[in-house]
Design brief:
Layout (H helix, E strand, L loop, with lengths): L1 H9 L4 E4 L3 H12 L6 E4 L8 E2 L2 E5 L10 E4 L3 H11 L4 E3 L1 H5 L2
Parallel strand pairs: 1-2, 1-5, 2-4, 5-6
Antiparallel strand pairs: 3-4
Amino acid sequence: MIKENLKNIIGDKQIYCYGAGTYGKIVGYALLDMKIHFRGYLVSNKDVKLRTVLGKPVWELDKINISESDFILITVNEMLQSELENELKKYCQLLLLNRIRNG
């Protein structure tokens, strides 16, 4: 159900995962397992030294051009999600896992 909901939501748009930590890896594994393509991971911490996670590139949020029609899937714990929502809305559309699960 999540796979179908996600595919219906994103269509042919690009998808990025915001957060390259534990939650990001879990979601990344799930996306790869469901054969859903995502471009890579976004982080805002300039001190992050990661270049790739699960073979996908890691970009600093303010150093990549994202189309307003693309999606950022927030892959951080729920406590941080609400803080990030307003900040990330400036860049493009957001996907929150609880909304995908519920259709």
